[in-house]
Amino acid sequence: MGIHPLELSAKVLKSGVADEPLNRVTNEISELADNLAIVESFSHSAVFDTGDGLMCFDASGAGSGKNVVASIRSWRTERISHLVYTHGHADHIGGSFAFAADATDRQNTKPLVIGHENVNARIDRYTRTNDWNIRINQRQFGGISSDMGLQIGENLQRFLPRSTMRPDQTFRDTHSLNCGSTTVELHHARGETDDHLWAWLPEKKWLFSGDFVIWNYPNAGNPQKVQRYAFEWSQALRRMIDQGPELLIPAHGLPIAGKKEIATVLDDIATSLESLVGQVLEMMNAGETLDTIIHTVKVPQNILSKPYMRPLYDEPEFVVRNIWRLYGGWWDGAASRLKPAPDGQVATELARLSGGAENLMRRALELMTIGEIRLACHLADFAGWAAPDDPAIHADRATIYEQRRKSELSLMSKGIFKAAAQDSQAIADK
What is the pTM of this model? Predict the structure, then answer.
């Protein structure tokens, strides 16, 4: 057992230094307060012993659900009476089959599953786009080697197990229930998803924040996933601050103790999102293109250096794109890209004008060596599209994208650039 999550959290927040993993995937359980524990996994499962059964917040993913339940059972043997989904992402509900199996094994009734009304629609969408979701998650997590990536990839045939439990009870805006002698309030807010909730226990002053807090820069821009809601995310954080929480339990990262500490973290996240939205909308209203906005709007480095704001998963540039998409649609403002010619056709013409795909690639390699890696990738793509079967061209393209992967911080960038390198390497190996 490593350092206790609250001890690690306090240490990191006090020092501002994060020199060890903060999103731990150990499947170990730690008690946070009387009758409250957390299993650190992908995602976490928080467990509250209500005195009349266990209330669990999130079920973790398909690859970790069984281990999560086993850890819960090492702490308490009471019936799991409630399972609350903070939202319907696969790493939060995919392990629910293990909670159902636990009830069967113990001859208990299955937990009452509670979630926002949009969770069922999400599960239906995942069924319709099963293969697509498997593919993009493999790409998203393929740029690193870690336990997290392995767990995401374990269930390759089904993005969600068929036995994933659907919510038995849903709500639209707010829902309140009494568990034992404790009131549990569930509040809907759009943020990373349109089916998200956060839970507040007023007598305990406990806040279960789901993915509104992930100890990384907010996942409000994911380039391969559906729309996210940066401004509404910030407003949800403001409402959380107003409650005065004294213990925050997120679904990723570390729990946080202390009213002041929690308010500071929530305010920093909210302020950064509000700043991005404000800057983007100001430039949109001034008639600027997406290209100009992307290369102008920035988050200060002193904010990105905070241990709970580092762009190691998502990153602000992607959030800017999602803000544009929400308020301005998908067209980026460049007339030629409204109804573009095929990439291969454009690339072939550029190769003809430059003297061949080899010249494009030669210049791409030169740009890479002088640190102009973004521009190098454009030319490498054009060369690859102009010569789709040329092993030498694609060997160089693989080299450029591998270098690009190494230069990036966010997991999402690393995964996509690694996939590009692998695609070209496969052609080169032929």
Answer: 0.95
Residue 249 lies in a domain: yes
pLDDT at residue number 143:
66
Q: Say if residues 424 and 397 touch (Cβ distance below 8 Å).
A: yes
> Measured between alpha carbons, how far is 394 from 422 in angstroms, rounded to an integer?
10
Burial 10-45 (b: 16+ CB within 10 A, else e): bebbeeeebeeebbbbbbbbbebeebbbbbbbbbbb
Domain boundary residue among 269, 293, 324? 269
| Structural domain span for residue 19 | 5-269
Any idea of the CA torsion for 164, 138, 135, 400, to the nearest 10 degrees? 170
Q: What are the residues whose beta carbons fall under 8 Å from the beta carbon of 370, sequence distance 6 or more?
A: none
Q: Read off the pLDDT of residues 47-92 as tens digits, 9 standing for 90 and up.
A: 999 999 999 999 999 999 999 999 999 999 999 999 999 999 999 9
When divided into structural domains, the chain yields a total of 2
Query: Are 166 and 123 contacting, i.e. CB atoms less than 8 angstroms apart?
Result: yes
Residues 264 and 357 in one domain: no
